[in-house]
Amino acid sequence: QSVLTQPPSASGTPGQRVTISCSGSSSNIGNNPVNWYQQLPGTAPKLLIYNNNQRPSGVPDRFSGSKSGTSASLAISGLQSEDEADYYCSAWDDSLNAWVFGGGTKLTVL
Amino acid sequence: QVQLQESGPGLVRPSQTLSLTCTVSGDSISSNSYYWTWIRQSAGKGLEWIGRMYINGGTNYNPSLKSRVTISLDTSKNQFSLRLSSVTAADTALYYCASLQLERRAFDSWGQGTLVTVSS
User: Fold this and answer.
1) Burial code of A49-73, b = ≥16 C-beta within 10 A, e = fewer?
2) From CA A22, how far away is CA A15, in angstroms rounded?
3) Is B54 strand, coil or helix?
4) Is B49 in Cβ contact with A104 (below 8 Å)?
5) How far apart are CA B110 and CA B66, in angstroms?
6) Which chain B residue's Cα is nearest to A99?
7) Around B20, how many Cα atoms within 13 Å sit in the side-chain half-sphere?
């Protein structure tokens, strides 16, 4: 059971906008920035969004992040087939003194 | 951006100690810009943070693994290491080393991962 809660799956058609939610608590998302990682099949995770809504260089602006209270969301607009991957949210947990992850959301492009 | 590469045995016997090394390139492991981190992923499952170490020797470990984990740095080789004792089949996983960039407070570089199987 992961500390952060994500839906196990999401899907959309090319060009569509999809969102993936991440729910936590006051000790993690409520008090610390949220990061998102993209894991393409057979590869290591890659930093997609940091500090709630910042994109590293090279990440398309189709990807955006937001946070409100103890929840965060990742939005992908103009969905493309190459976006098919697993997406993980993460934050520092002040109570556990540990980094915690969501269980991951498998995105399927139909 | 740093590059990281894991190395170590792919098979460990139950009750033995798992030992992995991460070789860092592109920056010094003595840099004060990073925490050096280990993360693992069991087959078909999500990511689990194992622990981190800073150049000043400070460490944090996952509470669920704390009694069995040691992370150390070797500045002469620009490497850091993971030791996990008393392993069981539940420790079978893909092990990643990663750099936690302090300014971004995020894991901004990852190794490719190394699969460790615990089996007799």
Assistant:
1) bbbbbebeeebeeebbbebeebbbb
2) 23
3) coil
4) no
5) 22
6) B49
7) 29
Residue-wise pLDDT tens digits, B24-53 = 999 999 999 999 999 999 987 789 999 999
CB of A48 within 8 A of CB of A37? yes
Q: Which of A43, A47, A96 has the CB atom closest to B107's CB atom?
A: A47
Three-state SS for B60-117 is: EECCCCHHHEEEEEECCCCEEEEEECCCCHHHCEEEEEEEEECCCCEEEEECCCEEEE
CA B23 to chain centre: 11
What is the average pLDDT score of chain B?
A: 96
Give backbone dihedrals phi and psi of B27, rounded to 5 degrees, phi first: -165, 165
Q: Do the beta carbons of residue A53 and residue A64 sit within 8 Å?
A: yes
- What residues does B5 pair with on adjacent strands? B23
Digit-coded pLDDT (tens) for A15-72? 999 999 999 999 999 999 999 999 999 999 999 999 999 999 999 999 999 999 999 9
Q: Provide the pLDDT for residue A103.
A: 96
Question: Which residues of B lie closer than 8 Å to A, measured between beta carbons?
Answer: 37, 45-49, 52, 60-63, 96, 100, 104-108, 110-113
Residue type, B109: S
